[in-house]
Amino acid sequence: MSGAVLTVSGLSLARGAQAVLRGVDLSARRGELVALMGLSGGGKTTVLRSVAALEPFDAGTIDVDGFRLAAGPTPRERHLAPLRRKVALVFQQHGLFEHLDALRNVTLALVHVLGVPRGEAEEKAGALLSSLGVSHRTGALPRQLSGGEAQRVAIARALAVDPPLLLMDEPTASLDPARRADLGETLVRLAAEGRTLVVTSHDDDFVRDFATRLLVMAEGRVVEEGPAREVLARPAHAATRALLAGAARSSPRPA
């Protein structure tokens, strides 16, 4: 792995009197699959939205492969064109356009943002859908897709502009165990191809099996960080132990 593709320094954000992020520092290198874990409301999704310039922040800096975001109002969209080629965010509920089939969802940015001719865009979109195992669903509308299929189409759409950084918010939330494993293997392959992935998750099994590194957030801060398996096997911070205890109670493992 080479240098950092993502560097977040001192990221702070408040909504009214409520501090959401309190000086978050994190980095992710090329080829890493970094997981963010923490209780709901801890700031994980807000970090992703800030990195994707969907959320303004009050202090700190964000650098995505050489493009820097500073504190203050979110820049106008015309100034964010370089960032849109460097980072893509896959939302928890996939965020596909319901009136467009899978192929047109994936070609949208290629045609209307990058100006790729439609035939070339469809060829690239078809190849992406095929690489993710959903080539047989190109003509399906989002409502006709299973949760796992919709997630893969959303990943294909995110990858269409070939960004070095892929962000995913709770990617396993709607998937059964077999499809979680399939998704994990897909993400590991994408990282091995040189992409950087940052995912939020409540799924400690998924993180243990597939993440390179884990950051645990609590009350708007990163409170623990290290190799995913080591952190989950020997949690040092009380917030991490509480998180894992809660996961064990909500998802008991068979004897």
Describe the protein in words:
This protein is an alpha/beta fold and 255 residues long. Strands 6-7-8-3-9-10 form a 6-stranded mixed β-sheet, sandwiched between helices. Strands 2-1-4-5 form a 4-stranded antiparallel β-sheet. The N and C termini lie far apart (39 Å). The model has no long low-confidence stretch (mean pLDDT 90).
Cross-sheet strand order for the largest sheet: 6-7-8-3-9-10
SSE-based structural type: alpha/beta
Distance between the termini: 39 Å
Strand content: 25-35%
Q: Give the rounded overall mean pLDDT.
A: 90
Separate helix tally:
9
The low-confidence parts are none
Q: Helical content, roughly?
A: 25-40%
Gyration radius, rounded: 18 Å
> How many E strands?
10
**Biggest beta sheet attributes:** 6 strands, mixed
Task: Give the H and E element order.
Answer: EEEHEEHEHHHEHEHEEHH
Gross geometry? globular
Per-chain topology:
Elements: E1 4-15, E2 18-29, E3 33-37, H1 44-51, E4 57-64, E5 67-72, H2 81-84, E6 87-90, H3 102-112, H4 118-131, H5 147-159, E7 165-169, H6 177-192, E8 196-200, H7 204-210, E9 213-218, E10 221-227, H8 228-233, H9 238-250
Helix pairs in contact: 3-4, 3-5
Pick out its properties.
alpha/beta; 10 strands; 255 residues; six-stranded mixed beta sheet
Provide a concise account of the structure shown:
The protein is of the alpha/beta class and 255 residues long. It contains nine helices and ten strands.
